[in-house]
Design a protein that fits this description.
Layout: H1 3-17, E1 21-23, H2 31-40, E2 45-47, E3 54-58, H3 62-72, E4 81-83, H4 90-93, E5 94-95, H5 99-108, E6 113-119, E7 133-137, H6 142-151, E8 155-156, H7 171-178, E9 184-186, E10 198-201, E11 208-211, H8 217-224, E12 228-229, E13 259-263, H9 266-276, E14 281-285, E15 297-300, H10 307-320, E16 328-332, H11 340-350, E17 355-357, E18 363-368, H12 375-384, E19 388-391, H13 392-402, H14 404-414, H15 427-434, H16 438-462, E20 467-471, E21 486-491, H17 494-505, H18 509-518, H19 522-528, E22 531-534, H20 540-560
Parallel strand pairs: 1-9, 2-9, 4-7, 6-10, 11-12, 13-16, 13-17, 14-15, 14-16, 18-20, 18-21, 19-20, 21-22
Antiparallel strand pairs: 2-3, 3-8, 4-8, 5-6, 6-7, 10-11
Helix pairs in contact: 2-6, 9-16, 10-11, 12-20, 13-16, 14-16, 17-18
Length: 561
């Protein structure tokens, strides 16, 4: 047993008896003072920052730093960052500080930016992972800076998670990973940024981004001009390569279940997840797609256009599944613009860079509207454009006979009474039940939403066509509208719809009018969809011509987006 192994063995038994104190500045006026005293005494404290919680210790004390590595189970060559209260401290610990450092500090400090600089001998090699460079950061969190100033020393503070696990963005996360391993945890509330600091290497020309984080790459380039990106940001480092900054080399942020990251447009990646997710899959997806994954454990990441929210939620999302029985996790990934580069980096590292690209070049147009509105005109125009048109109602009725999972779920909910002697499903029998029992109707709708979108997504993926049309009266209600590149509501005046239904179905005016009024209002269809096609044309030929012109505009716009 070598020295490190013996030390780990010692601390394993020490931790059994270590008491961790929760310090809350909001209720304890001595919390900051106590944390600073522990740091000065060579102990480790869980500390909030604006990015993530860190394990804080005196960066100049090699023995204190050793405790950080042991508590985290962190590889010895993974360097730590020095946290300081202002740029005036740079020359205490760094040599040959370039003008670019002060330029960045003036613009972005305090804030989520770490600068790699040449270290002075006073900074132990244990702190820097054996490197002659050191990361310097001034955090933008009042409690953090108060602790650093009260301790009077630069504070090493890597993320407060067990090495390899998702970073901690709340004190409770730190408690989960570090209780009994460190002396104290300071509860400074949830972290506002949610991903670690951006790391830029200023010892090379041009400067190089080593880790994307809370400060976007675009901001660095705006301040400095050319900034290159290290390959470790987008791909796995080789075994023999030495990391120049935290989070570069090792598998990070990983939950217990394996993760697959899906890139591509938000709607395309949602369709991919819907097609590939299995019964035991956990889902991390943008907010607008959560309804698609009924029956799964889902953690919303934030809206697809809200990367700030995504950054705040990404680590909590990854942690969500550790207390569940999911066998795998599928995660949507934002594009690489702005904070998306950092969010995607964390997800890909959690996945060990197991990434699938969902962009298939397909455009999906959803067509909805009440009975008699004239959807057929648009659907035929789509077919004329070479589209594969899927009738979602027909898909559902086909599944009633072929999909054993759906049939089993229906049997569990409604009993054998809905099955004929030959094993086929009696749709009329289901109708008699659900239209007399609102709870049963709700249950049926839930089953349709769980099973039908998945099958529709599979058929879309299998279709040998770049243009897909979905025909569904309940397009929005079942969640399919969210995965369409465009949604169109087809409308027509009630009198027109009634006449069309009477002629089409050979029914009375009263019955036709009752069917129209039993469905959603025209206003509801209009409100839910991206565009409206008013089909009040007196002849089929006129409707067909108008539909083709209308679709040309919709398709062109979808391609541009």
């Amino acid at each position: 047993m070598d020295f490190i192994d013996r030390l780990k063995y010692y601390h394993k038994w020490k931790w059994k008896y270590m008491k961790t104190t929760l310090l809350t500045p909001e209720t304890d006026e001595n919390a900051v003072k106590t944390a600073a005293e522990l740091i000065r005494a060579g102990e480790v404290v869980g500390m909030p920052t604006e990015t993530v919680y860190g394990l804080a210790a005196n960066a100049l004390d090699g023995e204190a730093v050793k405790k950080i590595f042991l508590a985290k189970g962190r590889p010895q060559d993974n360097p730590l960052i020095l946290h300081i209260p202002d740029a005036g401290w740079l020359t205490r610990y760094c040599e040959d500080v370039p003008d670019a450092a002060y330029k960045l500090a003036e613009r972005f400090w305090p804030g989520p930016l770490t600068m790699i600089l040449k270290k002075k001998p006073c900074v132990p090699l244990r702190t820097t992972g054996g490197l002659e460079t050191v990361g310097m950061r001034c955090p933008d969190h009042a409690v953090t800076r108060a602790i650093i100033e009260a301790s009077g020393v630069p504070v090493a503070a890597p993320s407060a998670n067990t090495s390899g696990r998702p970073s901690c963005t709340t004190a409770e996360h730190v408690r989960e990973d570090m209780w009994g391993k460190i002396d104290g945890i300071v509860d400074g509330g949830p972290c506002q940024v949610g991903v670690e600091s951006t790391i830029i290497d200023l010892t090379v020309t041009p400067p190089q981004l080593l880790r994307p984080g809370g400060l976007p790459l675009e901001s660095l380039r705006d301040a400095l001009g050319e900034v290159t990106v290290d390959k470790a940001v987008t791909q796995k480092m080789n075994d023999g390569e030495k990391p120049r900054a935290p989070g570069m080399k090792y598998r990070h942020y990983a939950p217990k279940a394996p993760v697959t990251v899906v890139t591509g447009g938000a709607k395309a990646s949602a369709r991919y997840l819907l097609t590939h997710a299995g019964e035991k899959s956990g889902i991390i997806c943008f907010d607008e797609f959560t309804r698609l994954f009924d029956g799964h454990i889902v953690h919303p990441l934030g809206a697809s256009d809200d990367k700030r929210a995504q950054a705040q939620h990404v680590f909590d999302a990854l942690r969500t599944f550790d207390e569940t029985n999911v066998g795998e996790i599928w995660a949507q990934c934002p594009d690489s613009k702005g904070l998306g580069l950092a969010i995607g980096n964390r997800l890909k590292k959690a996945a060990g860079f197991h990434v699938e690209d969902a962009d298939d070049g397909k455009i999906v147009i959803g067509i909805t509207g009440g009975t008699g509105a004239g959807k057929t005109s648009l659907l035929r125009a789509l077919e004329k454009e070479g589209a594969c048109v899927l009738d979602c109602d027909a898909v559902y009725h086909g599944m009633l006979e072929t999909d054993e999972e759906l049939r089993s779920a229906l049997r569990s909910e409604f009993g054998d009474v809905i099955f004929r002697a030959d094993g086929s499903v009696d749709v009329h029998a289901i109708g008699l039940i659900v239209f007399q029992d609102r709870e049963k109707l709700t249950a049926l709708d839930a089953l349709v939403k769980e099973y039908v979108p998945r099958e529709v997504a599979r058929r879309m993926a299998a279709a040998d066509a770049e243009l897909i049309g979905l025909d569904a009266i309940k397009l929005m209600e079942c969640g399919l509208g969210a995965i369409c590149d465009a949604t169109v509501a087809v409308t027509a005046p009630e009198e027109v719809r009634v006449k069309r239904i009477m002629a089409r179905d050979g029914i009375s005016e009263d019955y036709a009018r009752a069917r129209v009024r039993a469905q959603r209002s025209e206003e509801a269809f209009r409100a839910d969809c991206d565009a409206v096609f008013e089909n009040n044309y007196p002849t089929p030929a006129q409707a067909a011509f108008a539909a083709e012109e209308f679709l040309d505009t919709i398709i062109k716009k979808s391609k541009e987006e």
